[in-house]
Amino acid sequence: MRAVDIAFPFAIDARGRTAAANYPDHVRQMIEQLLFTRPGERVDRPDFGCGLLDLVFEPNSPEVAAALQVSAEGALLRWLGDVIAVARMDVTAQEATLRIDIDYTLLATGQRRTDRLEGRVI
Predict the structure, then answer these.
(1) What's the rounded Cα separation, in Å, for the pair 111 and 120?
(2) CB of 103 within 8 A of CB of 90?
């Protein structure tokens, strides 16, 4: 029996139950949570996250782009390395929007995925 993958953000479905997500969508949601969570935001896991949103307003330079890339790849390897294998990731910041394009393989199924994640800093 497979565990139920709870949808993120948490929601109630049409039946009045906790909304679920299929496995590929659940993994995408986990990636999004990890990349857009600032370290220290989670009380029970203060080192969870990667701090991408902290660098959005830094001056645009190859050094900042490299720092974003290293931070994101390190967090994915640490927290989701047993779930996905990242093949390619591009992180770009434009004004108040952070865009991440990521190609990865779901290790449990071998399915290859390409996703674009966007986060805004308010």
Answers:
(1) 29
(2) no
CB of 49 within 8 A of CB of 75?
yes
- Give the phi and the psi of residue 29 in degrees, each rounded to 5: -65, -35
pLDDT tens by residue, 67-89: 778 888 999 999 999 999 999 99
Q: How many residues does the chain have?
A: 122
60: which 2 tokens?
A: 């645009």
- Domains in the chain: boundaries: 23-120
Is CATH 3.10.450.40 correct for 23-120?
A: yes
More confident residue, 97 or 37: 37
Q: What does the angle CA 102 – CA 82 – CA 66 come to, to the nearest 5 degrees?
A: 40
Amino acid present at 91: V
Mean pLDDT of 59-65: 66
> How much of the chain is helix, strand and coil, in % rounded to 5?
30, 30, 45
